[in-house]
Amino acid sequence: MASERYHRQLILKGFGEEAQLKLASAKVLVIGVGGLGCPALQYLAAAGIGHLGLVDDDTVALSNLHRQVLYTTTDIGKLKVEVAAERLVEMNPEIEIITYPTYIQRNNILNLIQDYHIVLDGTDNFETRYIINDACALLNIPLVFAAVDGYEGQLAIFNIKDDNGICTNYRDLFPIPPKKGEIPNCAENGVLGVLPGIIGSLAAAEVIKLITEIGKPLINRLLHYNILTLQQYELNMSSGSDYTLPHTVADFLKMEDNNSCEIDSYLEIDATQLKQIQQKPSTLIIDVREEFEVPLLNPDLYKKIPMSKLDEFLAQEVTAYHVIFICQHGIRSITAAENFHKKYGTSKKVYSLKGGIAKWRNHLTI
């Protein structure tokens, strides 16, 4: 059965049974089972990767379905990792799949990735990408990085030495993390659904090339792809010195952000803190997402003020003392909190829900 399942790649020149056995012995962790993770996982499972780990704490939403091709309408509200695992087992029951319905943080990632040979990062925010990068660099685990935005995608491989002995990581590409709310993700900018399918498939191909040692993987090279023009180009990367990587577990954990991040103008909070503040008198929670965005929140608890109408709102007088801003991923809410603070200064307590609804959906009253 196995030889028949993989026959078309077994007969490839330069592949054969030896490469297939390497795939069967490989352990690959895919972080983010969304637009990039879904196509990558389909092809990794179909190719016969022996052990696949799936990390994602999110549930399926209707707005996911145009690009996250492992899910259907009947899956809405279910955990992505559980649905994905079920579909992948149906596709290939000969492989082992382990699910981790959890949100990546510095205090849990080392335990998650330590037993895997390769990590594929299909996440959609900078904070998590830096955490994944630092953990992989600390444990010397190869990292396949994939990202999409709008009509463009990027792909690279980190933490492997090339023929010249050079080894790069994500911080060589972006040594200075962007400021809070500075760069929106696809939830804010949008993305053409087929694009993550292309980039996710390419990421799966790079994983397979690394494991089987065929071809020329994108080690220390960044591939940039534009779906509108079908143009692509590569950038050669070199290691820099504008950053410090952790050398011990203690160093790694010291870099951890607190659940609440105190900024001059606002306070970043988690869902538990939101509920605590919600019980205080004179509290207003503002959802700055646009009218078309889902999930819909209870209008009795969350006031809808889209970012496109925020200036009109700020022109009015707000009587509440505690003002919490929320959005899909905690990016626009930061901008809103900063703008609100410019008007009211320290006369009010201003907050932003860190990670947004995407992170805390199961903890909010919807």
From TrEMBL:
Tell me the Gene3D superfamilies matching this sequence.
NAD(P)-binding Rossmann-like Domain, Rhodanese-like domain
Give UniProt keywords alphabetically.
ATP-binding, Nucleotide-binding, Nucleotidyltransferase, Transferase
- The first-level EC class reads transferase
- The Rhodanese domain, residue ranges: 279-365
* Listed GO MF terms: ATP binding; molybdopterin-synthase adenylyltransferase activity; sulfotransferase activity; thiosulfate-cyanide sulfurtransferase activity; ubiquitin-like modifier activating enzyme activity
Known EC number(s)?
2.7.7.80
Instruction: Give the catalytic activity.
Output: [molybdopterin-synthase sulfur-carrier protein]-C-terminal Gly-Gly + ATP + H(+) = [molybdopterin-synthase sulfur-carrier protein]-C-terminal Gly-Gly-AMP + diphosphate
- What InterPro entries does the annotation carry? Rhodanese-like_dom, Rhodanese-like_dom_sf, ThiF/MoeB/HesA, ThiF_NAD_FAD-bd, Ubiquitin-activating_enz
Q: Which Pfam families match?
A: Rhodanese, ThiF
- A cellular component annotation (GO) from this entry: cytosol
SMART domains recorded: RHOD
Q: Which family does it belong to?
A: Belongs to the HesA/MoeB/ThiF family.
Describe its partners and assembly state.
Homodimer. Forms a stable heterotetrameric complex of 2 MoeB and 2 MoaD during adenylation of MoaD.
Summarize the protein's role.
Answer: Catalyzes the adenylation by ATP of the carboxyl group of the C-terminal glycine of sulfur carrier protein MoaD.
Record's protein name: Molybdopterin-synthase adenylyltransferase
The species this protein belongs to is: Pedobacter polaris
* Encoding gene, per UniProt annotation: moeB
